From TrEMBL:
SUPFAM superfamilies according to UniProt: Aromatic aminoacid monoxygenases, catalytic and oligomerization domains
Protein's name in the database: Phenylalanine-4-hydroxylase
Organism (species): Shewanella baltica (strain OS155 / ATCC BAA-1091)
EC identifiers of the protein: 1.14.16.1
Pathway in which this enzyme or protein is active: Amino-acid degradation; L-phenylalanine degradation; acetoacetate and fumarate from L-phenylalanine: step 1/6
Binding site for Fe cation: 122, 127, 167
Known cofactor(s): Fe(2+)
Domain named Biopterin-dependent aromatic amino acid hydroxylase family profile: residues: 1-266
Listed InterPro entries: ArAA_hydroxylase, ArAA_hydroxylase_Fe/CU_BS, ArAA_hydroxylase_sf, Aro-AA_hydroxylase_C_sf, Aromatic-AA_hydroxylase_C, Phe-4-hydroxylase_mono
Length: 266
């Protein structure tokens, strides 16, 4: 855990089993129940298919081995238990090895709508269903490989690509309704409704250079979402000269933020 955070990740025992107190299972149950109502008609079909494939429990926090069994069989991925926030280097290393980092703690009820630290509900419920999808899984693997060999400065720009796709991406199929594929939205009851129902945020067609130049904040509802037409577009993005675009974005600089600066702690 990073210094100063109040969440502590649980460690597995010698058999790999993680023991969670009942009140944390209750939090999982309540979060799952809320999103089970919010997501139909709002989540993309590939996510809902993955959710069905995983068959994760609704009334308790799943064990990572349960998730791994399905991921390994579908796309060759597995989870990796981590202590919440990890370094860029470790993050890219895990993705490059087809291991998805999962922080083994869960949010408190007062932070239901949005949590800055990625908890197990965000990682398992928000992201793992789409890791059963080949396009999403391949994009995540490619991203890890790119980041592993990128410089510190380049990684900051790559973070924006991940943020506006894997975390906060939206789909707009031809002749179909707007829907969500970003795990940061799918795991947040508040942002699910905000992203789909509110007139406040901008929704712009995905443009790689624009994405790399767009600032974001992790502690607010997003002021802008980038939209792709279908999940297979992630394969097309993966084939682009992403690092060439990073170089160009660094030369051009960032757009003006669409949010106010974060207030300094007194």
């Amino acid at each position: 855990m990073t210094k100063g955070t109040e969440y502590i990740a649980h460690r597995a025992d010698d058999t790999g089993f993680i023991h969670y107190p009942q009140e944390e299972h209750d939090i999982w149950r309540q979060l799952y129940a809320r999103q089970a109502v919010n997501l139909p008609g709002r989540a993309c079909k590939e996510y809902l298919q993955g959710l069905d494939a995983l068959g994760m429990p609704k009334d308790r926090i799943p064990q990572l081995a349960e998730i791994d069994a399905v991921l390994q069989a579908t796309t060759g991925w597995k989870t990796a238990a981590v202590p919440a926030l990890i370094s860029f280097g470790r993050f890219f290393e895990l993705l490059a090895n087809k291991e998805f980092p999962v922080a083994t703690f869960i949010r408190r009820k007062e932070e239901f709508d949005y949590l800055q630290e990625p908890d197990i509900f965000h990682e398992i419920f928000g992201h793992c269903p789409l890791l059963t999808n080949p396009s999403f899984a391949n994009f995540s693997h490619m991203y890890g490989q790119l980041g592993l060999h990128a410089s510190k400065e380049e990684r900051v720009f790559l973070a924006r690509l991940y943020w506006f796709t894997v975390e906060f991406g939206i789909l707009q199929p031809k002749n179909g309704p707007l829907c969500i594929y970003g795990g940061g939205i799918l795991s947040s009851p508040g942002e699910t409704l905000y992203a789909m129902e509110s007139d406040v945020p901008e929704r712009q067609p995905f443009d790689l250079l624009d994405v790399l130049r767009t600032p974001y904040r992790i502690d607010i509802m997003q002021p802008i979402y980038y939209v792709i037409e279908h999940i297979d577009m992630l394969d097309e993005i993966a084939k682009m000269d992403i690092m060439g675009y990073v170089t160009k974005a660094r030369q051009l600089g960032l757009f003006a933020p669409k949010f106010p600066p974060k207030a300094k702690a007194s």
